[in-house]
Write a structure and sequence with these properties.
By secondary structure, the chain is of the alpha/beta class. It has nine helices and eight strands. The termini are close together. Bound molecules: cytidine-5'-monophosphate.
Length: 215
């Protein structure tokens, strides 16, 4: 298979990260979860609420390490688990709407894809970060199923939230992400939409691998 980049976009909790990680493993590619980068800046903002976000972005030291998945280091500290907590989830879409934040992270993400061989998931990967990606997927699923999957995921991570709270959070974040001024979440014209409602992880993974192997 020739060396390609795969962009996976879609609304919150659509299973992008789980699938992107599997696809990368099977195809021997590098997996990058860009949501984790926006979450890390949000964590820094929570830790330093008195500093302007534009200033925080200038001084931030983010390190992404691929180690059976992805670990993310903020100013030298592994925050991979901490960034999944509710306080970060609640604030991330606001922080992600800042121009300074997006400029900084998109540049870092583009550097990571220069040599190809990357499966990257997020909201603006096919439209902004790697518009020339060889394969673009737009992954959707019903809100109910996304909330149910996130509930299971949260239980495994020890994060408390009810199904109702998760439905509200998912709808709220989708709205913010789809209506923000800079790089809103939208399907790229040349992306292939996959509705994963009722599909297993294996089925979605296999479908993407099949598409990638045709490239
Ligand atoms: O993927 P995840 O749900 O962890 O992303 C958290 C948030 O980060 C999203 O709701 C969105 O506001 C922001 N994000 C973004 N652009 C990306 C990835 C994530 O704006 N490429």
């Amino acid at each position: 298979m020739k060396k390609i980049n795969i962009a996976i976009d879609g609304p919150a909790a659509a299973g992008k990260s789980t699938i992107a990680k599997r696809v990368a493993e099977i195809l021997g590619m590098v997996y990058v979860d860009t949501g984790a980068m926006y979450r890390a800046i949000t964590l820094l903002h929570i830790q330093q609420p008195d500093k302007e976000i534009d200033d925080l972005v200038q001084s931030i030291d983010l390190k992404i390490v691929n180690d059976n998945g992805q670990r993310i280091y903020l100013n030298g500290i592994d925050v991979s688990d901490r960034i999944r907590a509710n306080d970060v989830t609640l604030n991330v879409s606001k922080v992600a709407s800042f121009a300074s934040v997006r400029t900084k992270l998109v540049k870092l993400q583009q550097e990571m894809t220069e040599n190809k061989g990357v499966v990257m998931d997020g909201r603006d990967i096919g439209t902004k970060v790697i518009p020339d990606a060889e394969l673009k997927i737009y992954m959707i699923a019903s809100v109910q199923e996304r909330a149910e999957r996130r509930l299971l995921d949260n239980q495994n991570r020890g994060i408390e939230a009810t199904l109702e709270e998760l439905i509200i959070d998912i709808e709220r974040r989708d709205h913010l992400d789809m209506t923000r001024e800079i790089s809103p979440l939208t399907k790229a014209d040349d992306a292939i939409e996959i509705d994963t409602t009722g599909m297993s992880i294996e089925e979605v993974t296999n479908r993407i691998i099949e598409l990638a192997r045709k490239k």
